Amino acid sequence: MMWLTLLMVLPLAGSVVIVSLPKANEKLTKQVALATTLIVMGVTIAMAVGFERDNVELQFVEKYAWIPSFGINYALGIDGLALVLILMSTILAPVVVLASWNEAHGGRWSVKTFYILILVLETMMIGVFAATDLFLFYVIFEAMLIPVYFLIGGYGTGERSAAAVKFLIYSLFGGLLMLASIIALYVMSGAQGGHTFDLAALSNLEMSSTTQNFLFLGFFIAFAIKAPLWPLHTWLPDAAESATPGTSVLLLGVLDKVGTFGMIRYCLSLFPEASKTFTPAILVLAVISIIYGAILAIGQRDLKRLIAFTSISHFGFITMGIFAMTSQSQSGATLYMFNHGFSTAALFLVGGWMISRRGSSTIADFGGLQRVTPVMAWMFFLAGMSSLALPGLSSFVSEFLVLVGTFTRYPIHAIIATFGIVLAALYILIPVQKALHGPTTPGNENLSDLNLREKIAIAPVIAIIVVLGFYPSPLLKVINPAASHVIAQFGFSDPEPNLNSGDK
Amino acid sequence: MNAANYLYLSALLFTIGAVGVVVRRNAIVVFMCVELMLNAANLSFVTFSRINGDLNGQVIAFFTMVVAACEVVVGLAIIVTIYRSRRSASVDDASLLKR
Amino acid sequence: MMTSNSLVYLIALPLAGAVILLLSGRRSDKWGHLLATALSASSFFVGLYQLSLMLDRTNEERPITQKLFEWISVGTFKIDAGLLLDQLSICFVLLITGVGTLIHIYSISYMSHDPDRRRFFAFLNLFIASMLLLVLGDSYLNLYVGWEGVGLASYLLIGFWNQKPAYATASKKAFVMNRIGDMGLSFAIMIAFATMGTVSFTGVKAAAEQTSTAALTGIGIMLLVAATGKSAQFPLQAWLGDAMAGPTPVSALIHAATMVTAGVYLITRSNFIFDAAPTAQLLVVIVGAITLMFGALIGTAKDDIKKALAASTMSQIGYMILGAGLGPVGYAFAIMHLLTHGFFKAGMFLGAGSVMHGMNDEVNMRKYGALRKFMPITFITFGLGYLAILGVPPFAGFYSKDMIIETAFNAGGIKGIILGTVTLLGAGITAFYMTRVMILTFTGTSRWDEEAHPHESPWLMWLPMAILAVGSVTSGYLLSSGDALVNWLSPLFEDHGEHEELLSPIIVSTLALTMVAIGIAFAFIKYSLNEVDEVAPSDVSIFTKIARQDLMQDRFNEAVFMRPGQVLTEVLVKTDEVVIDGAVRGVGRAALGSGASLRGIQSGFVRSYAMLILIGAVALVAAIWVVVQ
After folding, report:
1. What one-character-per-residue DSSP string does C309-363 give?
2. Which of A347, A440, C183, C572 is 20 to 30 Å apart from A15, CA to CA?
3. CB-CB: which of A473, A484, A497 is closest to C70?
4. B61 in a domain, yes or no?
5. Is the residue at B58 inside a domain?
6. What domain range is A342 assigned to?
7. How far is CA C83 from CA C57, C141, C142, C201, in A?
8. How many other C-beta atoms can be found within 10 angstroms of the C-beta atom of residue C484?
9. A3-60 confidence digits (pLDDT tens)
């Protein structure tokens, strides 16, 4: 059964249905969008049940010739890593649709267009994680920018056009570097046994180390922009500030994961030597991102920008985990991708509701919300606790795995990164205090608490955060084989415990 | 017959045409000068055709003439339209495209 | 080791209470506090049941474990959600659930007028569950979950009235400073995993013998950092005074009896590390000694009754940490002092709450006075706690504190003499400031505000106080008669044989009592024989001023960490905007700028375009010419 193609076709079908709906009936549009995303989620879960978690080979493989004269195939397939990310994307999609029920009304275009864009984006989110043909991956990677561009530029707030353009140009810049690398790989594959874009075939190419280094950088810069790694991060706060909360969830929660996913899937497997060469530099950048993102988050006055900077810090953790190359750090990084999706979603959605009620995203405009809107305030608090990786919530498991795993090979990096957890306490508790505690700021007395729709939207997110904090095993069992496969391919093994190490 | 002379003439005509295009203001004159340059090129083609003893140059000359004819049709129409709207055939007056 | 499947109920019961109360919302306002109290009490009874089972077993079979499920398993990093109940944790379980239940009962009345009483009880239950997880976890990572869980509960309860900005700030300060300590625990776990490949208590204990001293010292120091954060020890002590912003029962339970003693638990639990890492152990002792003086000095200058008690807590935990740092002999005494302190300090805090309850929430002791007549029960229970903390025989503190002083003297050499002197001095200062609290609050003339109508608290409040007072009187004797606690705990600790005695117990007790008498005498002269000002006098010595400012701890933190941190943040925010984003926008602007300047060429004049084309063509031909030539 063509599970992956089915997954990609379903949202498209939903958007076709929406196109044919009357423009006036916005409610029906939203219902169709919600139903579509729910069906996709159901199909994904059904697919995940059939996933053989101990099998490290790609599963649900599909391959059809697309443009045979150039060796381009429509090839899909997933391992544990991709499965986890697809699962995250398809669970987040209905949450976003439900949570941003009224987000599209202030937009430049119709509500219909908004949901069409979201559904098209969902198709691409699935495709980008499932593609195993480099050309197909690249096409989807770039095409994803289009719906997001329109979602930010058409439905955002503030300087939405500028932010959308900034996002687009940044991403295109990285994408073009990657394109150059892809073409180079294609040309080289022609000299070594036939033109192809097949990922598995390309991983076996012979290249000189200089070539590898340059091609690696082409890919890595594209992914480092996506995942925002310091100093390529400045598009993210602007985009997050201008986008609607729902868009931000998809942007930070899913799209940015393409960057870290790409680092594992493409950078490491295509250019193992170059990855080793650049690992020290990348680790330094990752550690800088962790600390820098956290400090910048502390200094923000705007709630959305603050959340964006916390994500930069978290992506630093993920990148560090990927390149530290121990099974703990690698599994932790993958789990972190999943968990970050949900904790950022919770922060953005609840933060978005606060902002839309108050009509301002400046933190200082809030105050005393805990007394006025207790449910909303507590949800924000919980989301914040998840963001600062409180033990018992899901992000703790992943953050600690990354730190422990990194420590066994790069203790200094891990030690510096651990300071991030103190900064995390600050960047969460400062807005919590300003927005939720203290006396009620004038103008906030009559804010309404969460309604039933919003509660239903946030409940699964919070549930996942809590349940996975105590019981991450099901997910880890899917992730572990994939992560150790990556490390084994790479020729690394975990450092043995060294009883005599005189470290520290 | 020294073919070089034809080439000299062709170059001379081309130069006259080029200078005319650059220095003259009247659209009709500019237009004529462009035609002059085209025909100078035609002369070169025909000359080379003779020198080489095949018909390639001649054929290209015919092509050029067809293009020139089309150009005349479109170009004159534009000039006439501009003249009608501006009461002037000066090319310097039609500089609206700069922004 | 034996397994059991009933340990989880210890934690599950209060946790269920917290979840039910938080999720049910206003619906459970009417019965929420009763449910929470009942669940806490049932957890206590489960603890008693476990104790009775444990008493029936031989020493070796006493520890029992329960594996709940596989929590994290990646490569060799395997952590089960497992519980371990042994002789040490059962002490804590009973202290936490016992004192916890009493404080639940007390709070029913104390918080009866608060609209958010249900939420308060939910947080109390959450705290009990987290604290139990802390002491029952069978690995450092499980302990870590409870460790941060109690931090969260403490944050929520300190900031329970967070509509007051100062209280909200206090809760944030507590959380952040605790997080610094938690970072130490993270480091300890990382080093343990990197060197030994395991983080379970049994695993680390087994591996500790073959591990290099350097690694063990690293782990030990990091555990100490963790302990200083949670137990408000120097240099992470500054949050405890502010934590008194929470409702008084919270101060009694979390910031006196249980949570702040978690550091002592951590060090005793990790005895196998500290025993093998003398440097770390020495640092523990130093931290304990500094803090016990630090807290005592702050206590002498505080007019806020709760802050005076908080300073005293800090100082008493300093004793425990010092005791725990004195190696195998000290662990049991530290735990003993911890238990007795749990009784008398919780009792005194509840007494303070009772006084505040009767005095319109006034906390300034200079506005009390002569309350003895109006609150006899509070006076008696508080007084018994007072005698216990002073170490007057036969009250509880006498047994536990004297043991620590004695152990300090016997630590050997110059170290022993210094530590012994410090602990003795501490005892004297303790006597001074506690007597001061007693005199200012209960005796002398009344200095109340006019609207104050002091009255005794209802029975729901004084009953727990009375029970705790009984504990303050008897616990020391019960725990030390026949070395009951020492023998109970001894299987857990390495036995290092007998130490030479520098001073005999009788001399130590005499010295300590002399110091106490001197302290009392000073306080009596200063506060009972002279008039007490209603407003704190301002013409005081520089030392008093410094002590009033908590020995400049906040000023120091502000000057060294906060301000530079704020400046750094601001600078980085600006840098990000101007330099990094500036560079990005600079590229954009450069593109726009070059376009704008090149646009000048596009004049719109056809003839100039033609000219350019001509020049270009000529240049091209010339270039080809040159190349061909």
Report:
1. HHHHHHHHHHHHHHHHHTHHHHHHHHHHHHHHHHHHHHHHHHHHHHHHHHTTT--
2. A347
3. A473
4. yes
5. yes
6. 275-493
7. 18, 12, 8, 11
8. 13
9. 888 888 899 998 998 888 887 788 888 888 899 999 999 999 998 888 888 888 888 8
